[in-house]
Every structure is written in structure tokens, then in C-alpha cells.
Design brief:
Elements (H helix, E strand, L loop, with lengths): L7 E11 L1 H11 L7 E8 L2 E8 L2 H4 L2 H6 L3 E9 L14 E5 L2 E8 L5 H10 L9 H13 L5 H9 L7 E5 L4 E5 L8 E4 L5 E4 L2 H6 L3 E5 L5 E5 L2 E5 L10 E2 L1 H6 L5 E2 L2 E2 H15 L6 E4 L4 H12 L7 E3 L16 H5 E3 L1 H4 L3 E6 L6 H12 L4 E6 L27 H8 L3 E4 L5 H5 L4 E2 L1 H4 L23
Parallel strand pairs: 14-23, 17-20, 20-21, 21-22
Antiparallel strand pairs: 1-4, 1-10, 2-3, 2-4, 5-6, 6-7, 7-8, 8-12, 9-10, 9-11, 12-13, 15-16, 18-19
Helix pairs in contact: 4-5, 5-6, 9-10
Length: 469
């Protein structure tokens, strides 16, 4: 079972009407790795919102005819989704568009609220009617409720933040303003940049800012509210510094694209450091180091560099396959369909196989089998994360301990179960090397939750997922 991606959020503010739907399209394409269930774009043309969203990949949903239906505009919000809460259906697609007494709002959200159940109950008891099962609609309700008495949309957002607990990186659009928000813990990434013609770009990762021709300016700070309008950019910082920074360490291990730089830390270099640490802590006599595409590749290079064992491209990924195409009846073939071993590289070799994580062990067992079937004499598995021992309530799809192999077996037992000659995890105390000393959340590894654990919020998404790791 795989650890699934987060969502990706994207925003555009142009100084004059332009084909900003096209800009949002390419931005979302660059964030496709963060969510492959659904996607959506909302364009603002002088206060008129045009929206389209659906289940599927960006290239599948936004056909030529759909793109032609968008008007030119000055603002747009986009979203690509992998839902950690809420079913995979069209009603849960984002951005969420809300019509209220003070106007309109489009909202895209990355993260999970720890107090979502309590807020939803409170809202329903006050008469709110929900059309989705996602956290995003809760956030939209909280903001629009505050907007009824607030003097501005950004003031309403600030007030709503007083009651939101957990992970949320937001891009929201009113008729006149584009706003981005990062929760006070800074769980999820968010940054912005600017093109030569004065167009502002907001994105989950810097790779998307660069992909649309903008220059990266900086990351949004934890707790910061940035307001983009015709008057320029204004920063509200009343929530900054109110919480200790708890950036999700798994962004560096797996979620983010390797060419992104988050909070000043290169994802590529963070993964190489993880590989080098593994080589020092879990050395082994071997002939070749092979990374599992994609997040294991940089770490494999790092392991090779530190160990002196040659790096080899031993696994090839089928780049034309999305993560959601495989029917449940055929999920046993998933690894062999998505990955192919290069026998000439692996045959008669002692292989160090680098991957980002083990959840249930299903995918790891199939990976080891794939390498052995290609003729490997030995397979030594190294993992760039510590063992998963606890659920995550902030957006990472790690559910109840019942589904985590490390909760039931020792490392030597896991090695035997997946068929590896040896197994080594990155120690939890080495995670700080990835973040370069910045504060991070590692609750899924150590159980130290930054917020109160939600009551009655046992996640069972893995029972319905296709991919297994």
C-alpha cells in the first residue's frame, strides 16, 4: 500500500485580462504528483466565476474544448486532489465555489483539519447543509460566516484561523482579491513568485512557479496571510509565531518533486542526505545501488556516493500509467505493470534497493520479488523514512495502526516477510538532517502530535485504495 500524495493548490493574479486558465493548467500539471484523483480550475473575469472540475488527471479533465470554454480573466484558482478525507467523487472536487451575502469565493485547500469533525457538527447544529464530505467545505463555511461581520475577506480569513486546528495551505479568490494562507504550524508547503509581466503565481511547490515562467520570490511563512490585489501584495502576520513550526517531514522524503525548494531546503539534496545517512548507518557489501522510481532515485545516488557502491538504473517506470487506472481485481499485477527490472543491470548482482517507505509491506514484497526474478543474488532493502507506527491526522494517508506492518513485526521479521536479505530504516533521530534543523512534524513515526488527537477519527481509507505498499 502506497503513501498517497497531498493535494496541490495554485493561484494566478494577472495585471490585465489574459489566458490565465492556461497558466493554471500548466501549473496544475506541474503539481500532478500531489494528487491524481481529481482537479479543477476557477477563472475570475471581472467578478464572474467560471468553474470546471472533474475526476481524473489534469490532461484528461481539461480537454481542448474545456479550455476553450474559459474566458480571459485576471484571477484563477486551481487544485489537484488526492483526498485523505472524503470519497473520490465529483462533489468533493475542488476548488469549492461559494455564493454568500457578501459576494463569491473560490477556495482550494491542501491539508487536513484535526478538529474537522467538531467544527462540522457545530456548523450542522447551526443549520449549515454540507454538499461534500471534505474538510475544505468546513473551511469555506467558517470563512463565509466570519465574512458577514468582517470588514474584508482577509479579516474574515484571519478570524476563521482562530478556530481552525491542523494543516491547511489555502488559495482563495474573491471578486477583487487573491489570498493565500498557511496554517501557523506550517504543515504544508506554499510559496509564490512573479512573472516579468507582473503576474503573481501562488503554488504548493516552487517547481510549479518555475514551470509557468515565474521567478520564485519566497515561501509563505507559517501563519501568514498574503493578499494579492490591484494595489499590490499585503502581508498579515497576526498568526505568525503563534505555534512552533511543524512542517511535514514526509514532504522531503516523498511528496514533493525533487526540483522543488521548500522553506529554503532542496528536496533533491534532502533525499540525497537521507541516502548518505542510510549508507553510514546500514552498510552492506553489495555490487549495485538501485532506487525505486521516483522518490528513491535521489536517495540511491546519495547511498552510492557515501558507500562507494556503484549506482545503477535497475528499475524503469512506465511513465504513461496514472496511479488510479488499475482495477481492484488486477491490483496484484500493479508493481510489474508500473515498473520493469533491467535484467542486464541486476543479473548476478548483490542489490541495495532504496525506497521511501513501507506501510503494509505488500508493495515492498513485490519489489523484492521483481528484483530477484531479474537475477539478483541478494536484495538488501533500505528505507529513507523510519517505520510508520502511528496514524497521521494532517493530510498524509497513514491510517490506523492495524494496517501498519511495523506495529506488528520487528525489522528482522519485516525483512523476512518482504523477502529481503536485510532491511534498514532511516533512524528517527536522523530526520533533522533532512530539514536542515528546521522544525518538523514526525508524528506518524513517533506519535508526538502537535495538536489534540481527533476523537472518533479512525481512518480506514486503505481498505478502499487500489495501490498498496
Amino acid at each position: 500500500m502506497s503513501v498517497h500524495e497531498e493535494c496541490g493548490v495554485f493561484g494566478v493574479l494577472s495585471p490585465q485580462p489574459a489566458d490565465i486558465a492556461g497558466t493554471a493548467y500548466y501549473g496544475l500539471y506541474s503539481l500532478q504528483h500531489r494528487g491524481q484523483e481529481s482537479c479543477g480550475i476557477v477563472v475570475n473575469d471581472d467578478g464572474v466565476f467560471t468553474s470546471y472540475k472533474d475526476i481524473g488527471l489534469v490532461g484528461e479533465v481539461f480537454t481542448d474544448s474545456v479550455m476553450a470554454s474559459f474566458p480571459k480573466g485576471t484571477m484563477a484558482v486551481g487544485h489537484t486532489r488526492y483526498g485523505t478525507t472524503g470519497a473520490a467523487n465529483r462533489s468533493n472536487c475542488q476548488p469549492v465555489v461559494v455564493n454568500h451575502q457578501k459576494g463569491r469565493m473560490a477556495l482550494a485547500h491542501n491539508g487536513n483539519l484535526a478538529n474537522a469533525a467538531a467544527l462540522r457538527s457545530q456548523l450542522e447544529l447551526s443549520g449549515a447543509i454540507f454538499h461534500t464530505s471534505s474538510d475544505t467545505e468546513i473551511i469555506a463555511y467558517m470563512i463565509t460566516r466570519e465574512r458577514l461581520t468582517a470588514g474584508s475577506i482577509e479579516e474574515a480569513v484571519s478570524r476563521a484561523m482562530d478556530t481552525l486546528d491542523g494543516a491547511y495551505s489555502l488559495v482563495l479568490m474573491s471578486p477583487q482579491k487573491l489570498i493565500c494562507v498557511r496554517d501557523p504550524f506550517g504543515f504544508r508547503p506554499l510559496c509564490f513568485g512573479k512573472t516579468d509581466d507582473g503576474t503573481y503565481i501562488i503554488a504548493s511547490e516552487s517547481c510549479a512557479v518555475k514551470a509557468v515562467g515565474a521567478s520564485f520570490i519566497r515561501d509563505v511563512e507559517p501563519g501568514e496571510i498574503l493578499v494579492f490585489s490591484k494595489d499590490g501584495v499585503a502581508s498579515r502576520r497576526e498568526h505568525c509565531g503563534t505555534r512552533e513550526k511543524k512542517f511535514c517531514i514526509f514532504e522531503y522524503i516523498y511528496f514533493a518533486r525533487p526540483d522543488s525548494v521548500i522553506d529554503g531546503v532542496s528536496v533533491h539534496e534532502a533525499r540525497q542526505r537521507a541516502g548518505k545517512t542510510l549508507a553510514k548507518i546500514h552498510p552492506v557489501d553489495a555490487d549495485i545501488v538501485v532506487g525505486v522510481p521516483d522518490s528513491g532515485l535521489d536517495a540511491a545516488v546519495g547511498y552510492s556516493s557515501a558507500s562507494g557502491i556503484p549506482y545503477g538504473i535497475g528499475l524503469i517506470k512506465n511513465k504513461y500509467i496514472g496511479r488510479t487506472f488499475i482495477a481492484p481485481d488486477h491490483r496484484g499485477d500493479q508493481v510489474r505493470i508500473k515498473l520493469a527490472a533491467i535484467e542486464d543491470v541486476i543479473r548476478d548482482k548483490r542489490v541495495v534497493l532504496i525506497d521511501d517507505s513501507i506501510v503494509r509491506g505488500t508493495t515492498s514484497r513485490r519489489l523484492v520479488s521483481l528484483i530477484r526474478d531479474a537475477g539478483a543474488k541478494e536484495v538488501h532493502m533500505r528505507i529513507t523514512a523510519p517505520p510508520f507506527l502511528y496514524p497521521c491526522y494532517y493530510g498524509t494517508d497513514i491510517d490506523s495502526q492495524d494496517n501498519l506492518i511495523a506495529c506488528r513485526h520487528s525489522i528482522s521479521e519485516i525483512a523476512a516477510l518482504i523477502g529481503a536479505d536485510s532491511l534498514g530504516y532511516l533512524p528517527a533521530e536522523s530526520l533533522c538532517e533532512l530539514s536542515q534543523g528546521q522544525g518538523f512534524c514526525s508524528a506518524c513515526f513517533d506519535g508526538n502530535y502537535p495538536t489534540k488527537i481527533p476523537e472518533g477519527n479512525v481512518k480506514k481509507r486503505f481498505e478502499n485504495r487500489i495501490s498498496e505498499k
